[in-house]
């Protein structure tokens, strides 16, 4: 993988481990010569992922809507900052620039970005690995909900398996490196459940 898009919060969260793991992921990706593509802000976990990579000589590309730059949220030290007109254009550009996706803790925006990329994969629009760094068990309930979607017949187990999850950076990156996208279509029938 040449670059990985990271979706995460513009806040730090309440547990110090959130900040520590965001920085550590940036550092690890830099050490592996994998570039970071992220939302371009200097605040919260977004700033930590960027700093972790930049302070270890990594490439960091930020993609920021103009209206957020005007609020002085842009990280000043990035390898490259791309300004776009909308949130949708931001996601599209981040997708185009990367070979995979990792989600760290965050709020509504983080989930929305992650699930759009996951939906595109489910529909066969890309075959990139999609991972969750489950820091401090943050996404354990989300994984339970995804299991409920399978149990209740709204999601195929093979699509559930598209979500790669670990609380360890190295293990998650290994899962992503070895990922093979499913080849069956999205639509659920009695025969494909």
Low-pLDDT residue intervals, each spanning 5 or more residues: none
The count of DSSP E runs of length 2 or more, i.e. the number of strands, is: 7
Major sheet strand order: 4-3-2-1-5-6-7
Cα distance, first to last residue? 32 Å
String of helices and strands: EHEHEHEHEHEHHEH
CATH class assignment: Alpha Beta
Mean pLDDT: 94
Q: Per CATH, which architecture?
A: 3-Layer(aba) Sandwich
Question: How would you sum up the global shape?
Answer: globular
CATH topology: Rossmann fold
Rounded radius of gyration (Å)? 16 Å
Secondary structure elements and their pairing?
Elements: E1 3-7, H1 16-31, E2 35-38, H2 44-54, E3 60-65, H3 66-69, E4 80-84, H4 87-97, E5 101-103, H5 108-122, E6 130-133, H6 140-151, H7 157-160, E7 163-166, H8 169-177
Any overview of this molecule?
The chain is α/β, with parallel strands linked by helices. It has a single domain (3-177), classed as 3-Layer(aba) Sandwich (Rossmann fold). Helix content is 42%, strand content 16%. It is built from 8 helices and 7 strands; from the N terminus they run βαβαβαβαβαβααβα. Strands 4-3-2-1-5-6-7 form a 7-stranded parallel sheet, with helices on both faces. It starts with a strand and ends in a 16-residue tail after the last helix. The mean pLDDT is 94.
